[in-house]
Design a protein that fits this description.
By secondary structure, this protein is an alpha+beta fold. It is built from three helices and 13 strands.
């Protein structure tokens, strides 16, 4: 029994949800269109979706089947993320710490100077935009998974180190700091 899957999604004003069922594989495709763009996704096998007077209701064929039950809440969350994405969008913020570390945006490329002998160029994927303000990078788009993946890839270019905290970190991330080596006097 999925608590998340049982909750209906209330479709906000200005959001258009379109359902299609593939005849051969019985897999439903959901298209969501809003002010910021449009997204489409396929529901996992065994999960069905019905649109009833402004609400989306999810169900599974057999509530005792463990595999179907596992995808019930997942399907609801994916569709809800698509609805929130096309209406409000998602964003992640990164912070660059370090002397001489900086970032710049050149078209669809993010150029990072983070202590290497060369600047690192990161090409932003389609559907993702970025803003650079001093040492902060803001990544935003309508696809939650793609926004998070892009932020994680940028962070992995120069992860924060535990001694001085230099590197790229999420704006709300806490870095566990270590004490440096102590030199004993003779």
């Amino acid at each position: 029994m999925s608590r998340v899957g049982k909750k209906p999604i209330i479709v906000p004003q200005g959001i258009e949800v379109k359902l299609e069922t593939d005849a051969t594989s019985q897999i439903q495709k959901v298209g969501v269109k809003g002010s910021k763009g449009q997204l489409s996704l396929s529901l996992p096998a065994g999960v069905s979706l019905k649109q009833e007077d402004g609400k989306l209701v999810f169900a599974v064929a057999d509530e005792q089947n463990v595999k179907e039950r596992a995808f019930w809440g997942l399907a609801r969350t994916l569709v809800n993320n698509a609805i929130v994405g096309v209406s409000q969008g998602f964003s992640k913020e990164l912070e660059i710490n370090g002397v001489g570390f900086k970032a710049a945006l050149q078209g669809k490329k993010l150029v990072l100077n983070v202590g290497f002998s060369h600047p690192v160029e990161y090409a932003l994927p389609e559907g993702i935009n970025a803003e650079v303000d001093k040492n902060n990078i803001k990544i935003f788009g309508i696809d939650k998974q793609l926004v998070g993946q892009t932020a994680a890839e940028i962070r992995s270019i120069k992860k924060p180190e535990p001694y001085k905290g230099k590197g790229i970190k999420y704006i709300d991330e806490q870095i566990r700091r270590k004490a440096g080596k102590v030199v004993k006097s003779a």
